[in-house]
Structures are given as C-alpha cells and as structure tokens.
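[09:14] KT: can someone run the structure on this one? pasting the chain below
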Amino acid sequence: MLPLRLLLLVCRFFPVVDQYALVKWTWKVGRTTEDGFRLVMMTVEKFGLGAGRALAHEILQETRSAMIVYGIAHAERLEKNYDAAKEWIDLAEEMGCEDCYHLLSVKLGMSHKIAEYDHGEIVEEMLACNYLPMEYTHQALLNKAYLLFKERQYPKAEEIVDHILRIKKDLSAEYLKAEMCLIRNEDTLAKKLLAKSRKHLSEIDYNVNVALAYFAADRVDESMEWIYKAVRGGYKKEQGHPAIKYIIESDRFSEYCAMRN
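[09:31] RB: done, structure tokens below
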C-alpha cells in the first residue's frame, strides 16, 4: 500500500490528481480497513448513498470490520434513515465483527430515535471501553456531563466539563459551563462563554441558544427576553426546541411581549 505520507505529498504537488481514483487504487492495492472506509465514504459523497451501500456490503464481507459499518450507518443517520442504520449495526454484530466498539458512537447518535438504544447505558459503555478513539471518549464524556446536569448533579457535571476544557476548546462544553454559571448567578463568565458561539451561529440561532441557557437555569424572565429577540428576528415556534414553543404559547410570554412592544 502507498504510505499515507506519500499520498499526501502526491496530492500536494499534483493537485489535479483524482482523489477518488487515488483512494480506490490504494484500496485495490492495500486492502486495508482504513482504505475501505475512506473509499465507502468518498463513494457516498461522489455517487450517492445507493452506491455507497453496495460498496459497503462488498468491503464489509472482505474486512469484516465494524469501521465500514460505522461509515455507512453514519451516512444513513445523516439522511434520517434510522431503521436502515440500525440494520447495518445489527449486521455487523451478527457477523461477529471484533471491532464493534466503532458502532457505539452511531448508537449514541441514534439513542433518541431507536428505543432499543439506551442513551445512558451507551455512554457508560463508551466510558468503560479502554480502547476507544479519543474523539469517541470525548463524545461520551460530554454526554455524561449533560446527563448529570439534567439530574441536577451540577458539581459532578462541572467536574467533567472542566476536564474537557482543560484538554481542548469545545463550544458544547463551554455552553454547558455557561448554564451552570447562570445557575450560580455568575453572569459575567456565563455571558463570556455564550458569546464564544456567536460567530458560528445566525442571530436567530444565537438568541435561541442563549434563551435555552437561561431557561435551563430556571431564569424564565431573562429567557423570554432572548426569545422575544428571536421572534422579532423571524423565529417560528415550530422550528425548534419544545421549551421555546412552550414559552411562546404561554400567557406569560404574551404579556411580556405586550409590555416590550
């Protein structure tokens, strides 16, 4: 197999090289799982999900690796084909793929859609697995922090969030930290953390995000101010979070808007 470093040099000095053809060739020559995974994902991107499915079946039979299933199941999930994604996962498990830990991340992403996938159990399984890639462990830690936050175990949740933020910048972790700061009325730090996401979001989405942070901290009046800004900007209650819809439909919000207008 052509070494990855050499491939990168080829791509750098010969930018007109057909990337798909190159990956297809490396799979043909090397037959490694990593090359098969890349080829499946590029096939989905270039030719569509149907072509990707056919190739994934072919490569899975040869590699017997759940990494291939992770790729195609993730593509199915992005298209909201949750049942199809589950069928891929079931297939990998039935085949006895030895690296089924790759599937935990996809299961976690579908745990709100597939009743069989218990969110909390998957998080704990991911955290107990010593050989998960770092990005999977990070995903599991963040989800664990959110679960603890929902259970109002704020110190434990914050301990995890602080650990994540010591390792890398993470907007989701900073957002959860901001929610906990709002609960403690540490508004200066909370606003600073929330403001970090401003450049990544539209004005409406930013207003809704801040509204949800205040709502999570049981500061409903301040949440309504941000919802008011979002509605004035064109936000429709059908667009997003049930909590926002609940507030918009409340008499309290109607009175607030009348006062603000």
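[09:33] KT: thanks! The mean pLDDT is 91.
[09:34] RB: yep, looked fine to me
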